[in-house]
TrEMBL record:
CDD domains per UniProt: DUF820-like
Annotated Putative restriction endonuclease domain residues: 48-212
Short name of one Pfam family: Uma2
Record has Hydrolase as a keyword: yes
Protein name: Uma2 family endonuclease
Highest rank taxon of the organism: Bacteria
Keyword Nuclease: yes
PANTHER family linked to this entry: SLL1072 PROTEIN, SLR1083 PROTEIN
Species this chain originates from: Streptomyces spectabilis
Length: 226
C-alpha cells in the first residue's frame, strides 16, 4: 500500500450533509455516511438518479457508479497529477490526432449500468464534442488510472475499473501502480475481461498495443516514487 494510505474518510461530514441537501428526493433518504464511507440503503440507485446526484454534488465531491455501487473518487495528490500530465504529454507527442481527456465521464451501460470518471480517457480529438457530461465509451481507445492514497485503491483501480473498461470494450486499460512501482497494460477485452495483463517496473520500455500504439519510456516515473 502506498505510504500514507490509511482508512481515511471518503469525504467530510460537511460535504456529505451538503450532498444530502442537494440530492434529488428519490435518493436523499437513501444516503448514509458510516465509518467515513458514502453508502446507499436498500440497494443501488439507477443511472438517472445517479447522474442527477453527480450533477448537483458539491465541487469537492466527484462521484462514480461502479458495479452498481456509489463511489467517491479520491482527491488526487501532486504526484498523481504529475503522472497524469506525463502520460498526457506522451500521448500528444506520439499520437497528436488523439486527446487524453482527464476525468471525462463515461456511461458503461453493459456493466450494471455504471458511470465512471477515469483519470484519463484516450480518444480521437473532438470525439466527446456534443456528448454531455456522461459520454459513450464506444470511441475510447484507452482508459488510464493512477493509484491513489486511499484504502479502496486495490478494489477500485486493480479490479473494478479494469472490469468496467473491459465490459465496455475499451481496447486498453493502463494502470500506473504507485504501490508496486509498475505500469500495467491490460489489453484484448473479451467477455467482460482483459485477456492480457502485462506489468512493467518503473524504468522499463512499455509498448502499448494497437489501436493505441504508444511506447512509454518510464524512467521519469521514478521521480514520483515514494
Amino acid at each position: 500500500m502506498t505510504p500514507g494510505t490509511a482508512e481515511r474518510p471518503q469525504m467530510s461530514v460537511e460535504d456529505f450533509e451538503e450532498l444530502v441537501r442537494r440530492a434529488p428526493e428519490t435518493v436523499r433518504n437513501k444516503l448514509e455516511f458510516l465509518d467515513g464511507r458514502l453508502l446507499v440503503r436498500h440497494g443501488p440507485i439507477d443511472v438517472d438518479d445517479f447522474e442527477e446526484l453527480a450533477r448537483v454534488a458539491p465541487e469537492t465531491v466527484t462521484l462514480e457508479l461502479i458495479d452498481g455501487k456509489l463511489e467517491v473518487k479520491p482527491v488526487p495528490d501532486g504526484d498523481h497529477g504529475e503522472i497524469i500530465m506525463w502520460v498526457l504529454r506522451q500521448c500528444m507527442m506520439q499520437r497528436p490526432e488523439l486527446g487524453l481527456y482527464v476525468e471525462q465521464g463515461l456511461r458503461i451501460d453493459t456493466y450494471r449500468k455504471g458511470c465512471i470518471r477515469p483519470d484519463g480517457a484516450l480518444a480521437p480529438i473532438d470525439y466527446f464534442a456534443g456528448q454531455g457530461e456522461w459520454a459513450s465509451p464506444d470511441g475510447v481507445l484507452m482508459t488510464v488510472e493512477v493509484t491513489s492514497r486511499d484504502s479502496d485503491t486495490d478494489r477500485r483501480d486493480r479490479h473494478d475499473k479494469p472490469r468496467a473498461s473491459a465490459h465496455a470494450g475499451i481496447p486498453v486499460y493502463l494502470l500506473v501502480d504507485r504501490d508496486e512501482h509498475t505500469v500495467v497494460v491490460y489489453s484484448s477485452p473479451e467477455n467482460g475481461a482483459y485477456q492480457s495483463r502485462r506489468p512493467y517496473p518503473y524504468g522499463s520500455t512499455v509498448r502499448i498495443p494497437a489501436p493505441v500504439a504508444l511506447t512509454l519510456e518510464t524512467e521519469k516515473l521514478k521521480d514520483y516514487a515514494d
